[in-house]
Amino acid sequence: MGKIVILSGSPSVNSGTDKVLGYVGKLLQERGSDVVFHSVRDFEAETLVKADFQNVRIQGLIRDIEGADGVIVGSPVYKASYTGVLKSVLDLLPENILKSKAVLPIMSGGSSSHVLAIDFALKPLLGVLKGEVLQGVYVVDAQVDKEAEVPIVDVALERRLVSQVDELVGAIARVRQTI
C-alpha cells in the first residue's frame, strides 16, 4: 500500500495520542503499509525556537514526508487547538509538502467539548500545507487505555478508526491515479 508517515504532536512521554497513533500504525502495517513514526519530542527546543530549517532531524522528517503516500497527524487538544510544539514543527516544513498526499488528522482530548478543534484548527492547517485532508477522528481520553496492548476500549471509536484507515488507503489510491 505504500509508505505512511505518522507525526505525533504530543509533548507528553506517556501520551494517549501516541497510543492511538501507534494503534492506527499497526492497522496500516496489517494492510501492508510501511509506517514511519515521528514525534515532536524528536526535535530539540532550540531547533524549533530558532526555526532551524536545516536541522538534520527536520530534514529527515521532510524526506520521509516527501517519500510518503499518506500522512497522519495527531495532536492532543490544548486550549481548543493543536499543540504549539506541533505548529512549530509544521512551520519548518515546506509550504506544499502535503501536496498530492492523503492526510488523516487525529485529535484527542479530555471530553467531547473540543471535538470541533479537528475541523476548525488542525484540518485548516493541514490544508494550508496542501494535503488532501480526510474527515479525521476525535478521541476522548476515556476511550483509551494507555496501559493496554490494544489501547482502544470503545467499540464505536475502534470502528471509526478502522473506517478512517480504510478511507486513507482508498484516498491514497485515488491520489495515485491523478498523479
Automatic annotation (TrEMBL):
UniProt keyword list: Flavoprotein, FMN, Oxidoreductase
EC annotation from Swiss-Prot or TrEMBL: 1.5.1.38
Gene: ssuE
Protein name (record): FMN reductase
UniProt keyword Flavoprotein present: yes
Native species: Listeria booriae
InterPro entries, alphabetized: Flavoprotein-like_sf (IPR029039), FMN_Rdtase-like_dom (IPR005025), NAD(P)H-dep_FMN_reductase (IPR051814), NADPH-dep_FMN_reduc_SsuE (IPR020048)
Lipoprotein as UniProt keyword: no
GO molecular function list: FMN reductase (NADPH) activity
Listed NCBIfam families: FMN_reduc_SsuE
PANTHER family xrefs: FMN REDUCTASE (NADPH)
NADPH-dependent FMN reductase-like domain residues: 3-141
GO biological process, one term: alkanesulfonate catabolic process
